[in-house]
Structures are given as C-alpha cells and as structure tokens.
Amino acid sequence: MHTSSARGCRGCAIRNTAGFTLVELLVVIAIIGILVGLLLPAVQSARETARRSACQNKLKQLGVAAHTFMSAQQTFPANWYGNDASISSNGWERLSGMYAILPFIEEQKLYNDIQQRMSSAASWNWNTILGLCNTRLPAYACPSEIPPASSTSGWTNYGWSLGSYPHGTPSRTSANGFTHTESRCNPASSPGTRTCNERSWPGFAPSDFRDGVSNVIMASEMLVGSQTNEALFPRNVIFGSSDAFSTIADKDFATQAEIDAMGAATSAPNGTSGSGAGWRGNNGAWFGWYGASSSSINTTVPPNWRFPSGGSGIPGMAYDGGWGVFPPRSRHSGMVNVVMADGAMRVVADTIDAKTFQQMGNRRDGATWVRD
Fold it and tell me: Using one digit for the tens of pLDDT, what is the confidence trace for 165-176?
C-alpha cells in the first residue's frame, strides 16, 4: 500500500502554470506605452532635423546657382524678366529670378521652353508660360512644408530677399536687398499695370553690396498659400489699406511702433483696396512669378512674424505689387533658414531683434550684424 501510494503521488506531480498575472500585464503595457511616448518625439525630432538639413542644402544650391549666374552675367539675378522688345505685354506679365537660374539647377529644357515662348510673338501666351511655371520642381520645395490640399501648382518655398524696404515689387533705386523688381520700360517708377515690352534691368553686382556679400541675406523660406481665399494664418496673406506701410518715416528701417501698426493693419483688413481686400491663398503658387509672396521676401519685420503677411496691392497673383511686408516663414520650429549673398548658410531665430534683421537684409546701410 505504501509503495502504491508513493507511485500515485509521483503520478500526480504539480503542473508548471508560470505566467503573467493581470497586474503584471498591465504594468508591462504601461511601460511599453511610456517608452513609445518617449520614443515618438525623438523620432519626429530626428526626422525634422533631417528635413531641415535638406532644406538648408536646397537653399545652398540656390546660392550656388545665383553665383553661377553672376559669373556668366556679371550681376546676380533680378526678380523681373520680360519678353523681347518686339512683343507687347502687360507690366504684370513678368518672370522671377527663379526662372533665370533654371539652367543652373539642371532645368535647361524648362528654361528653353519658357524662353522660346517669351521670344516669339507667334508663341507668346502668358497663360501658356504660367502653365510651364506650374511644373513642380523639387529644388524649390522645402521637405518640411505641408502641401496645400488643393495644390496642383509648381509652388516654391524659397524667395529672394528684396531687403528691408516695405514693398512687394521695389524699384532698383528703392530696393536695398539682394535683388530688385524693375523693368527697363520705365526705370523712374515702380512696376505697374502699364504695357511694358522690354527685359529687366540687370540685378545687383557684388560691388553694389556696400556691406559686403557676407553680411546680406540672399534668399530665405516662405510658406505656400492654401490656393483658396481663406483666413488661414500663417499660410495665406492679407490685402487692405496701404497707409500703415507707405507712411513709414524711414522706409529702410521701420520702428517697433510702425511695425506694430503694420501688424494691426494686416490683422484687420479694412477693405479699402476693393477686390484686393481680404485673404488670398495663391501666394507661392508659381515659382516663376515675380511678386512678393510668390518668389521673394522682405526683411521689414522678423521671420515667422506673429501677424499675417500682406499689405496693399493687386490681388491677381497673390501679390503683384504695392506696399506690404512679407517676412520669411517656415515650418521649422522657432527659426528660418537663410542663405547669405556669399553663399553661406545661416539660421535666424524668430526672436531676432527687428533692427538687426533689417540690417541683415539691407546691403547698403553700412552696418554689419553680430554672428552667433
């Protein structure tokens, strides 16, 4: 009996039921959740760092292209190119410096196609040319940009600096930045809606940079509009009265009080510009368009300004001309990338002093800025 009982006990050996209890499972799940919560921001940060680096590289390539253009033409690109003198066209039918550098960013064919249509009366058609400017070029797109849902255009995230003068299409005389927007047809006045059938005045040469090319912004970033006329800040731009912009005492250096007045003007457009009043979302829609908020920026106010970009002007292509402020804007947190006129890359914080940023845009004020 004893032997049989012992054998029975051996046959009834306790089974191994090791595993997680409910409490242990909940603890593991909580730990995994915490780890994921810590990891995702790090991954997102790493991705944004890579995108920002790619953005800097694209701006650097624009700088290289502008210098290659300068080597060939003895001046940097202007921001206003027209058709041959034998072809009559309107003053707003002009192309930007982005068109001029196409051969130097490996887009020779596109350049040739546009030029052919600008040089022949038989092929001249502004809508056709804009169609070619509708080509999406990776060189002009920042990887951090959030593409507009309705966008089908060849938008650009980069714009040439017109300097600290608060105008969207300043003349060669008034423009104090890297480039200007003026035609030979009437050099005594700013571009307008008149008939104009001659090519641009040349851009500025290195000798025109009194401050030295290392101290002047060449180009920076800009946001693309939603392509719908909605109150979307900071993506879209505003039109309204020109008073707050045109009455600045020293138009090279707006004071903080004047900047605040401009902010109030863009925050509440009063409708005095007729069809131009209100929000517009087609800024940056064509890389080849010459107007501010389409292929250029100015440095009147700091980057990523807390008020909307905008001013007075003709609303045909987001901003055809007139008084206004169009500071650099980016999707990078707290800063924008800039390329200087010597080709060097810089990062400019949103918190930069307004006067310092104006000096960085101004090529002829005789001031240098403190590098970090």
Answer: 998 888 889 999
pLDDT at residue 43 tops 80: no
Task: Return the H-helix or E-strand segment holding 218.
Answer: strand 217-221
Identify the CA nearest to 140 among candidates 101, 95, 185. Answer: 101
- Most confident among 247-251, 270-274, 289-293 (mean pLDDT): 247-251
Distance CA 239, CA 219 (A): 24
Q: Sorting pLDDT into bands at 50, 70 and 90, what band is 272?
A: very low
Evaluate the CA torsion angle 314, 317, 318, 320 in order and state its sign.
negative
Token pair, residue 127, equals 């809508």
What six digits make up the tokens of 119?
Answer: 């040089």
- How would residue 120 be classed by pLDDT, with cut points 50, 70 and 90? confident
Concatenated DSSP letters for 133-187? Answer: TT---GGG--TT----TT--S---SEEEE--SSSBSS--TTT--SS----BTT-T
Distance between CA atoms of residues 12 and 163, nearest Å: 91
CA distance 65 to 332: 24
108: which residues sit within 8 A by CB, 6+ positions away? 102
Spatial distance between the Cα atoms of 304 and 297, rounded to a whole number of angstroms: 12
Alpha-carbon dihedral 104, 145, 113, 298, rounded to 10 degrees = -70
3-state SS class at 323: strand
CB–CB of 183/82 below 8 Å?
Answer: yes
* 195 beta partners: 90
- Distance (Å, whole) CA 25 – CA 124: 72
User: Which amino acid makes up residue 215?
Assistant: N
Copy the structure tokens of residue 220. 């920076």
What sections of 194-351 are H helices per DSSP? Answer: 243-246, 256-267
Q: Do residues 159 and 176 lie in contact, with contact meaning Cβ atoms separated by under 8 Å?
A: no
User: Rounded CA gap, 268 and 276, in Å?
Assistant: 14
Q: What is the mean pLDDT of the chain?
A: 83
Cβ(222)–Cβ(145) below 8 Å: no
| Of residues 110 and 188, more confidently modeled | 110
